[in-house]
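ARCHIVE ENTRY
Sequence with per-residue tokens
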Amino acid sequence: MMKKEKTKEQRKLDRELVEKYHQKVIEEALERLYESFQQWKVGQLHYGELTDQIHEFHKYNQKIWSKFNRLGWRDEILILEAKKEFGLLTEEEESFFIFNSNEE
């Protein structure tokens, strides 16, 4: 894939897309934790299991933070992941994913 200079508008769209992707990833993780809190509140989940899940969420959230704050919206791989998540990949970008998944 040839790298070409992005316009100010393209960079703005990248930032917005990565922010939307970040929100989706975090909210999905928070939703699972919220469900555990609800189960605990009505006595369906032992407090020890809930605290374990809180700890696991914290570790997962640290990984998310690292992923999104390493280069943030300037990270081309992260931008491609976000585009893939929302079905916005171009044919050229799609072939990049196919090529790289075949290398593994």
In short: Residues 73-104 form one domain. The CA atoms of residues 6 and 12 lie 10 Å apart. Helices lie at 8-41, 47-69, 76-85, 91-103.
